Amino acid sequence: MSGHSKFANIRAKKEKNDAAKGKAFTVIGREIAVAVKEGGPNPDNNSKLRDVIAKAKANNMPNDTIERGIKKAAGDLESVNYVYNTYEGYGPGGTAIIVKTLTDNKNRTAANVRSAFTKGNGNIGTTGCVSYMFDEKGQIIIDKEECDMSADDLMMFALDAGAEDFSEEEDSFEIVTDPAAFSEVRDAFEKEGITMASAEVTMIPQNYVSITSEEDQKNLDRILDLLDADDDVQDVYTNVE
Fold this sequence. Notes:
Layout: H1 6-14, H2 18-39, H3 47-58, H4 63-75, E1 83-90, E2 96-103, H5 106-119, E3 123-124, E4 134-143, H6 151-161, E5 165-168, E6 172-177, H7 182-191, E7 198-205, H8 214-228, E8 233-238
Antiparallel strand pairs: 1-2, 1-3, 2-8, 4-6, 4-7, 5-6
Helix pairs in contact: 2-3, 2-4, 5-8
């Protein structure tokens, strides 16, 4: 989930139970398969695969699991038939929700996403109905406790690498890039040996809304919980404060 407390969300995800972690591995495994099919199994020549590997490591996926996923995808390209789809809609309290999926069955996924919105008093909208409220950006989050560089030095390094923006939070640093420059900037951080808590292309809200009704919050949580439990759902973005 993207929002102001991005680093807090990352830490919460890393403390997930085994079932939730298994879901994350399933999603990343599909991303590895698609990246291999599109650009080959060698990460040196496949920037998309490098990005997915970095995401896998940030989610504590074991190296041997990553390697098995790459080999499996490379050995059976015809079986890789996942497709990306994006759904947009409105949640309770005027919230905007974007759902990105990676699935081998679009009809099943569409039905599940629609059901999640309906059960939480939300509505699926048309393409573009809420995405204009977000900016697609590369985002790198660094845990202050894992970083030996000063804020000034890290900022200069990030900007020299091609980042657009740098901000310091209470317990983390956030680096924002243009999506097209994300891989290059992430590679620069990796080569420098800078540990990244998270590195991904994400959707950042231009403005945030607050939920004031307990009922609205309950319904929104229901939508997000149902989406989070669905293996076909890759990412969910909201503009909730």
